[in-house]
Amino acid sequence: MTKALSKRRISPVKALITWALQWGLWLLFAGNTGIREMGIGLIATGLATLGEVVFACQLRGDYHFRFRDLLQIYWLFWYTITGACEVMQGLTRQLFTKRGADSFIGAVPFDIGGDTPSAAGRRCLAITYTTATPNCIVFGLEPKKKLLLYHQIIRGPIRSLTKNLGARP
Amino acid sequence: MTAHQMIIAILLGFAVLVAFLCTLGMIVMRDAFQRLQFTTPVISIAAMCITVAVWLDDPAWGARLKMLCITITLFWMNSILTHATARAIRIRDHDQLAPEKGEDIHIVHEK
Amino acid sequence: MNIWLWAGAGMLFCLMMLTLVCFRGEIGDRLVGLEMAGCLASLTMVLLIEGFKRPSFYDLPLTLALLSFGSGMVFARFVQRWL
Lengths: 169, 111, 83
Prior knowledge:
- The structure holds 3 protein chains of 3 kinds.
- Chain A contains 6 helices and 3 strands.
- By secondary structure, chain A is mainly α.
- The radius of gyration of chain A is 21 Å and the shape is extended.
- By secondary structure, chain B is mainly α.
- Chains in contact: A-B, B-C.
- At the A-B interface, helix 4, strand 1, helix 5, strand 2 and strand 3 of A face helix 1, helix 2, helix 3, helix 4 and strand 1 of B.
């Protein structure tokens, strides 16, 4: 079994730091540092941290996000605007033309990568960032054929951010 | 009406217009994937406009931060949920994710 | 009535229109309508909160946004496997 697929272990120090951070966020969110609020916050965030540790220990595999992959987020602003215009274009076609809007399902060759945490993180970001933009919904990665499957209302070119995260059209 | 109120009115009017058009798209579209496309503009455009309007109009930092939390939560959760829903619909309709034999799925190659 | 309440009324109208999606069609179409309704309900709440100047209620749309994600994932799983 590769390292990426083995069960994760969470160190107690990390769990305590997570608990402390969550407690701080709780107090910030509540806007109140009274003794009762602090006590209830400790209990609630303690339960949340316990749940997170249990879930993390059951989770197989790990994710590691490289900074240059995370930086692709800067494309989102541009594609949000252009994608929204494309979606409205699709609506206009559906309302005012006989043929109606398209429902285009496409596939693009995708560099799946291996079972490493950074490859898993890259795939995760590719799906999340691409689906976050209008007019492109990723509904899956096909690992055997190394394809990324997506749906568009108005057929368009593959987004640069998807190419930067592994699409190889 | 002051300039400040006019800006708030334009932002909110635009947000409601986008929501209305997306809801109309939900009603008139033919299949589930096309309908799913209309959830994203509501979050990315309408919610952003409302967030900016709240930041301009409400001086309380609690309200501003919570509105920002709501928008960020909606934005990222919607992306994940849209992917999960599209995947679920695809698997329900075709019993698998991968293209079937004879299915018209265009594999995109760019020069 | 102020501009926020008018915007909230507009959003509520959109929410009512979504019932046309949720009450007819295939199960996948209805699920999509439900997910959109969750988002619109959160935004409607925000507009009404600002309209009525009750900032202490901001926890409600935030909770709704988080829980509608959870419920959407559960429904998607059910639609994929069992329904």
